[in-house]
Design brief:
By secondary structure, this protein is of the alpha/beta class. The chain is built from 8 helices and 5 strands. The strands form 2 sheets. It has a 3-stranded parallel beta sheet. A two-stranded antiparallel ribbon has the order 4-5. Strand 2, helix 5 and strand 3 (120-124) form a beta-alpha-beta unit. Helix 2 (27-37) crosses helix 3. The protein starts with a helix and ends with a helix.
Length: 172
């Protein structure tokens, strides 16, 4: 990372918990901007942008200002921006915070589709129902790693019936 930051940047995508897009740009302009930052240019960027907007269901909203989108659409746009360059690894920080249940479900469908195409995805979340959707979990407490494994392995390790019960037990 310290010796080849540009090479690393092309291989990773990041979506912040806090909305970090440009409200005064359209959906298409935001995705184009991030694609350029991640190293896409010219015909490759144009073709990728067209396909990517359609893939994320944003094609009909491509000329809409990002600031006028609902929370769920903003999250969808943020994911499109973070993945415009097809990163090998994607970091998602609390990706569905403040999003309605239907938008959360659609968002997770997109995450599964990305993972199915080979993208490694690291998600931070306080929503244990979302944590249970992940293949592997890591629990941190006060800066220390206290559990790693599949959801089944974690529940056995902490002798709890569900991931949510593990979380509750750790809070006590």
């Amino acid at each position: 990372v310290s010796t080849e930051p540009e090479a690393i940047r092309r291989k990773i995508g990041y979506m912040s918990q806090r909305y970090g897009l440009y409200d005064d740009l359209t959906v298409e302009e935001n995705v184009r901007f991030y694609a350029t930052i991640y190293g896409l240019h010219g015909r490759e960027r144009t073709e990728r942008l067209r396909a990517h907007l359609a893939e994320h269901g944003l094609d009909e909203r491509r000329r809409q200002l990002a600031g006028t989108l609902s929370g769920g659409w903003k999250q969808r746009l943020a994911l499109a921006c973070a993945t415009a360059h097809r990163p090998e690894m994607l970091f998602l920080d609390e990706p569905t915070a403040g999003v309605d249940p239907a938008a959360r479900r659609r968002f997770w469908e997109s995450i599964y589709a990305l993972a199915g195409r080979g993208t490694t995805i690291l998600v931070t979340t306080h929503y244990m129902d979302e944590a249970e959707r992940c293949q592997r979990l890591a629990f941190l407490s006060r800066g220390h790693l206290i559990g790693v494994g599949t959801p089944d392995e974690i529940t056995r390790q902490f002798n709890q019936p569900t991931i949510e019960d593990v979380f509750i037990a750790l809070q006590q």
